[in-house]
């Protein structure tokens, strides 16, 4: 019972009691005896009971988009009398328990028309609500209320819900809207470097981000060495990033959770959308399988540089007589999902994602001389990609208890297969031949089962609890070889061999409980506990992780927030900090490699100002233990046992973030600024001293603006600035005498006396975009024209020390000097794309 | 995996060469903390009485494209052994392209070097004075040396590989930590060899680095495998070097350094171990035992 309800009950009791007492006094002034005393006592107790048990009823249901039938995540539902409210969960479900009476139910969601629904509540009721994002007035009353839970009201801090509709209006790299690149524009989040879609949160490493697609982990979220992310924005419904104050339902990574929900499919009507861009095109189709009961969505994207270039490449290969060949690279993504409302209480979802990068080359050369034919062939294939799938069952046990049960599968695989063939035919009979094949495979497979419950007993409590179990299969790397030798028509030698590191199996389990509850009207808390267990071989790791977030709301709608969270990460990603490669591996903790752990405290303030400007400022301090990194001298090309390549140490990061966001209106966007420090320390690196992390970034600024001039014209621009990454250079050159016992000879040594002793140039870039839309309701068109790196800056990708030779005219000799050559990847890149919806 | 490297490098070269000027720019090297220092290379062994010492100098990485090996002329090298001072004789005018040492230290005949503490001091008016110290622990006892002909056979890619083995125990009889380099020599040359022991770290000289602190017993047993030859001219020798901790740490980091040089940009930088206070290089000690097999 809330304080307000309690107070009104007491007032009710005292007013009734005093009325009775006055009545009694009037007629029994002289006979106030024990009987009266007893009666009064009974009445008092009854009234207390009545007062405190004023009948409450629960309104529950789903809030969906009127046009598509899709559930709306985090829509706001409130009893406008009392101000008590709740938000919808990930599936659009809400449950609100309020005293029975006439009430006005306010329903709001950003970008949608706010509704106020009058109700007379005498019993529990199911109320499914549809909301429209159209501007025309609806039959329901429209009032000016807040459109969603305001930032200062949320208990959760360090969390940003990224509006996908707004993301789609931002400038796109080569015409491709990229969710992960947009994430990098948020404070506390930074990119790894030029063009990369990997991200680093609050001084954490790349592997410390849990990326969930419909609740299933995605292990490698990048295409083309990180220049594109695997997420097709057309198939995405919701994106939420959590950087700290992690709710107990999340675990397994130290630094962030990026929770991405796919669209569910339009329950009402068939519709589609597509984009034709410079490097890729995509098409999304969705519609009802059974109107208002079942729907599907399927979305595909593919690059086609290889297809366009194929004739040219084929022509190039064919210049030599007898030769044919092809060469190319492409990536694709395919998202598919269907959902089925079995009943008002049950709903099933089946979703899948498949995406691959493929590099291939095939070359054959055939030469004929008389009856002899000599054929040589080379085939090289290099591919990597993810496959995820989720089977989900939503069930409403009661109007206050909602469950989500899911079985998920996630696989990341890197595979290269290569072969060289040489064959000699005499009169079309194979006389001599050699076939050499070799390849390499590595990856990770996960199968998980989980159940999550949302229990909303009263508006003041939102309780979540659940459990998860995951079976990990780690394939650290297998090389396979085959060799076949044919001589004079007979096979004289054949070899088929596999060499590699052992596949490792692990179990990861967790249970959690959290309660988001309103202690007073000003003080709200989210308190939770996450317990995880990791079993690999015979080694078992346990971890109890308390989580707490507090929010105190002042009278002027300014809130202060604080959070504390401990995390444990049982798997790690072995990668080079200079450049991630697709064969970098996810690997488990073992008896030799301990799980990474962290604790983070954060504090801040938030307020929404007039005009819808959300302002938040946060400071954080994060300590990480058992952080994994390559040992000195180790490389992701080195084929030794991965456990021998890893060292573990400490990490420390702290800083402050400012975020000003405007979500609605003609001009929307945000400004983010991060001031941060991030350090690492390993006993066997840098002489055991702390040194700046490669992605230590003192200043990071993002300015994002979207201006909707009219229904036809939309303009957007972004500008980013970041302190350059740290780099390690030798300070001097010297010689070591290698003495073999019979003299010695000098070997040059580059002396590294301190890690991270150099900073790359600052990174800054502006991107611009203009959209022009036209068309009727049935078929809408949009042309987007933009530019990446609009002012053509040479941003650093990497630097390399090189020797520069200059001719000295005075001496007539060439002189050499050591210089740094900075390599950039992308200068000004214009882009144009055409999009359509129907 | 190596082929993948080639593809990546080719792709980068392709991109880089096609738009070299458009996508690159030259930056002047900033000072990343260079300090002129003397570089010492000096190893004491108990089997000889005349030592060669190299005193060279480091050069700034930022402005020396191809530095040459440069002696420091005029350095004064002093070695202190249990209170006695020995000064090395400088060889002036030596050609650094031919000779790599420029100081010679001669000890008196019969001077015992075992179980002593050595301190080194090198002074020069243009450089900071450097100091270092090292120590050779007591010699261990090598026990149960056993040579086995054709100890094991394996088949790789269709080829039969036959290996001989030498087994032995090292008993140091003390509580202090000892460090060893284990090697097999044939006619004075290092023989490529293998150890199955995961605690044995291969070094660039085909030997294995051992720290006895890694073993729970006082007399751990070791086995070294090497290619079996039907060569009657072979003179196999088991060589056990009892090295100072500084030598052990240096060889460990030097092995990492060598490995990193193969992978360039993709390798973690290595901070090479040095026990030269105020300078660079290595001052180490070793004691060699050899056993004919």
SSE map:
The complex is a heterodimer of chains A (about 850) and B (about 290).
Chain A: H1 3-27, H2 34-52, E1 56-65, E2 76-79, E3 85-87, E4 93-99, E5 102-108, E6 115-120, E7 125-126, E8 129-131, E9 159-162, H3 164-167, H4 179-183, E10 189-191, E11 199-201, E12 209-213, E13 216-217, E14 222-223, E15 228-229, E16 236-242, E17 256-262, E18 271-276, E19 280-290, E20 294-303, H5 305-317, E21 323-341, E22 346-369, E23 372-398, E24 401-426, E25 429-455, E26 461-487, E27 490-500, E28 504-518, E29 523-536, E30 539-553, E31 559-569, E32 571-574, E33 585-588, E34 596-609, E35 613-630, H6 642-645, E36 646-662, E37 667-681, E38 691-692, E39 699-708, E40 713-722, E41 726-727, E42 732-739, E43 744-751, E44 758-759, E45 763-775, E46 780-788, E47 798-808, E48 813-823, E49 829-837
Parallel strand pairs in A: 1-7, 1-8, 12-17
Antiparallel strand pairs in A: 1-4, 2-3, 2-5, 5-6, 9-16, 10-11, 12-13, 14-15, 16-17, 18-19, 18-49, 19-20, 20-21, 21-22, 22-23, 23-24, 24-25, 25-26, 26-27, 26-28, 28-29, 29-30, 30-31, 31-34, 32-33, 34-35, 35-36, 36-37, 37-38, 37-39, 39-40, 40-45, 41-44, 42-43, 45-46, 46-49, 47-48
Helix pairs in contact in A: 1-2
Chain B: H1 2-18, H2 20-23, E1 24-27, E2 38-45, E3 50-57, E4 59-60, E5 76-81, E6 84-87, E7 89-90, E8 103-106, E9 117-124, E10 127-135, E11 141-156, E12 159-171, E13 179-186, E14 189-190, E15 193-194, E16 201-202, E17 208-211, E18 221-227, E19 236-243, H3 245-261, E20 280-292
Parallel strand pairs in B: 2-20
Antiparallel strand pairs in B: 2-3, 3-8, 5-6, 5-9, 7-8, 9-10, 11-12, 12-18, 13-14, 13-17, 13-19, 15-18, 16-17, 19-20
């Amino acid at each position: 019972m809330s304080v307000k309800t309690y107070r009104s009950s007491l007032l009710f009791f005292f007013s009734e009691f005093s009325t009775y007492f006055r009545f009694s006094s009037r007629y029994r002034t002289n006979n106030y005896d024990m009987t009266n005393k007893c009666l009064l006592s009974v009445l008092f107790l009854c009234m207390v009971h009545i007062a405190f048990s004023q009948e409450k009823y629960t309104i529950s249901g789903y809030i969906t988009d009127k046009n598509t039938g899709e559930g709306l995540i985090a829509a706001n539902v409130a009893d406008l009398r009392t101000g008590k409210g709740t938000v919808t969960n990930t599936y659009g479900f809400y449950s609100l328990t309020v005293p029975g009476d006439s009430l006005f139910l306010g329903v709001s969601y950003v970008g949608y028309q706010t509704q106020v629904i009058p109700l007379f509540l005498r019993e529990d009721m199911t109320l499914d609500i549809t909301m429209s994002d159209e501007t025309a007035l609806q039959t329901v009353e429209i009032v000016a209320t807040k459109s969603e839970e305001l930032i200062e009201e949320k208990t959760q801090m360090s969390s940003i819900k990224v509006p996908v509709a707004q993301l789609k209006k931002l400038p796109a790299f080569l015409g491709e809207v990229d969710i992960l690149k947009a994430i990098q524009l948020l404070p506390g989040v930074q990119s790894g470097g030029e063009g990369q879609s990997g991200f680093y949160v609050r001084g954490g490493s790349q592997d410390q981000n849990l990326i969930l697609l419909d609740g299933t982990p995605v292990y490698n979220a990048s295409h083309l060495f990180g220049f594109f992310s695997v997420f097709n924005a057309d198939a995405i419904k919701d994106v939420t990033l959590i950087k700290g104050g992690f709710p107990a339902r999340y675990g397994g990574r130290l630094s962030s959770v990026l929770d991405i929900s796919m669209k569910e499919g339009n329950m009402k009507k068939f519709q589609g959308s597509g984009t034709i861009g410079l490097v890729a095109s995509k098409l999304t189709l969705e519609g009802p399988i059974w109107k208002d009961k079942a729907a599907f969505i399927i979305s595909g994207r593919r690059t086609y540089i290889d297809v366009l270039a194929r004739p040219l490449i084929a022509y190039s290969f064919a210049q030599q007589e007898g030769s044919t060949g092809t060469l190319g690279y492409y990536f694709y993504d395919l998202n598919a999902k269907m959902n089925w409302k079995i009943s008002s209480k049950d709903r099933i979802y089946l979703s899948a994602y498949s995406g691959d990068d493929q590099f291939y080359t095939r070359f054959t050369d055939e030469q004929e001389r008389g009856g002899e034919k000599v054929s040589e062939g080379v085939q090289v294939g290099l591919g990597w990609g993810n496959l995820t799938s989720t089977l989900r069952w939503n069930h409403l046990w009661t109007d206050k208890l909602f469950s989500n049960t899911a079985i998920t599968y996630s696989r990341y695989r890197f595979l290269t297969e290569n072969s060289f063939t040489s064959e000699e035919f005499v009169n079309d009979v194979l006389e001599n031949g050699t076939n050499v094949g070799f390849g390499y495979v590595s990856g990770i497979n996960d199968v998980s089962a989980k159940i999550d419950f949302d229990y909303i007993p009263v508006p003041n409590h939102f309780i979540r609890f659940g459990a998860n179990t995951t079976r990990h299969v780690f394939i650290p790397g297998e090389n396979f070889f085959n060799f076949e030798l044919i001589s004079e028509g007979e096979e004289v030698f054949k070899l088929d061999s596999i060499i590699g590191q052992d596949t490792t199996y692990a179990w990861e389990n967790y249970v959690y409980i959290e309660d988001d509850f309103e202690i007073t009207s000003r003080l709200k808390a989210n308190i939770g506990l996450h317990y995880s267990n990791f079993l690999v071989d015979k080694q078992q790791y346990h971890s109890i992780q308390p989580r707490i977030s507090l929010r105190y709301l002042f009278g002027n709608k300014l809130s202060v927030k604080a959070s504390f969270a401990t995390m444990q990460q049982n798997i790690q990603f072995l990668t080079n900090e200079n450049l991630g490669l697709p064969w970098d591996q996810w690997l488990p903790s073992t008896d030799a490699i301990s799980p990474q752990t962290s604790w983070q405290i954060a504090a801040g303030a938030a307020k929404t100002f007039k005009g819808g400007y959300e302002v938040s400022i946060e400071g954080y301090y994060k300590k990480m233990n058992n952080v994994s990194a390559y040992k000195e001298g180790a490389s992701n090309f080195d084929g030794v046992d991965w456990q021998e390549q890893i060292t573990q140490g400490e990490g420390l990061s702290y800083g402050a973030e400012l975020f000003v966001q405007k979500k609605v209106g003609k001009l929307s966007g945000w400004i983010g600024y991060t001031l941060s420090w991030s350090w690492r320390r390993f006993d066997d690196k840098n002489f055991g001293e702390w040194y700046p992390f490669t992605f230590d970034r003192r200043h990071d600024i993002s300015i994002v603006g979207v201006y909707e001039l009219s229904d036809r014209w939309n303009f957007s621009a972004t500008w980013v600035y970041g302190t350059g990454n740290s780099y390690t250079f030798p300070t001097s050159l010297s010689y070591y005498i290698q003495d073999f016992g019979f003299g010695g000879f000098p070997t040059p040594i580059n002396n590294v006396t301190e890690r991270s002793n150099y900073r790359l140039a600052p990174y800054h870039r502006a991107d611009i975009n203009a959209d022009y839309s036209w068309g009727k309701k049935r078929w809408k068109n949009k042309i987007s024209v933009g530019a990446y790196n609009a002012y053509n800056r040479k941003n650093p990708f990497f630097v390399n020390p090189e020797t520069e030779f200059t001719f000295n005219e005075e001496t007539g000799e060439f002189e050499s000097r050591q210089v740094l050559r900075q390599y950039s990847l992308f200068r000004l890149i214009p882009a144009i794309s055409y999009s359509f919806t129907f | 995996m190596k082929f993948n490297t080639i593809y990546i490098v080719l792709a980068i070269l392709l991109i880089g060469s096609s738009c070299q000027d458009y996508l690159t720019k030259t930056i002047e090297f900033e000072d990343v903390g260079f300090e002129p220092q003397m570089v010492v290379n000096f190893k004491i062994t108990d089997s000889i009485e005349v030592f060669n010492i190299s005193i060279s100098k480091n050069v700034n990485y930022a402005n020396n494209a191809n530095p040459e090996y440069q002696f420091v002329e005029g350095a004064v090298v002093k070695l202190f052994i249990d209170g006695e001072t020995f000064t090395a004789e400088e060889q002036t005018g030596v050609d650094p392209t031919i000779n790599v040492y420029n100081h010679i230290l001669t000890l008196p005949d019969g001077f015992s070097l075992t179980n002593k503490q050595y301190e080194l001091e090198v002074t020069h008016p243009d450089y900071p004075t450097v100091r270092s110290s090292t120590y050779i622990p007591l010699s261990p006892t090598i026990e149960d040396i056993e040579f086995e002909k054709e100890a094991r056979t394996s088949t790789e890619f269709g080829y039969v590989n036959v290996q001989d083995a030498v087994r032995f125990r090292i008993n140091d009889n003390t509580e202090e930590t000892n460090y060893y380099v284990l090697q097999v020599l044939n006619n004075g040359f290092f023989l490529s060899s293998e150890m199955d022991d995961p605690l044995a770290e291969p070094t660039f000289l085909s030997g294995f680095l051992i720290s006895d602190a890694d073993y729970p017993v006082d007399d751990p047993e070791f086995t070294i495998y090497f290619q079996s030859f039907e060569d009657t001219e072979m003179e196999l020798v088991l060589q056990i070097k009892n090295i100072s901790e500084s030598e052990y740490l240096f060889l460990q980091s030097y092995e990492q350094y060598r490995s990193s040089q193969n992978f360039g940009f993709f390798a973690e930088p290595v901070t090479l171990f040095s026990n030269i206070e105020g300078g660079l290089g290595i001052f180490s000690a070793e004691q060699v035992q050899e056993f004919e097999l």
